[in-house]
Amino acid sequence: MTRYEFHLSIPPEKYVEYYRGTVRHVVARALSGQNVQFPASLLQKFVSPEGVAGRFALTVDAHNKVVSLERV
Length: 72
Description:
The protein is mainly beta and about 70 residues long. Helices cover about 10% and strands about 45% of the residues. The protein is built from one helix and five strands, in the order βαββββ. It has a three-stranded antiparallel β-sheet with strand order 1-4-5. A two-stranded antiparallel ribbon has the order 2-3. The radius of gyration is 12 Å and the shape is globular.
């Protein structure tokens, strides 16, 4: 399994695009410099009135399927 750590800062007015389905994927730059893409729906449990912000870790399997997304 591979783990990517990254920071996100998505204000609520921008997250609405993800919520409505206008934007389906999030692309973030991992601390390693790699770009990672994952379904925006994974962020739903992290949404607050301020949007989505913090440091996250995305774990994927050998086939790049998402295993977990967590706030670290």
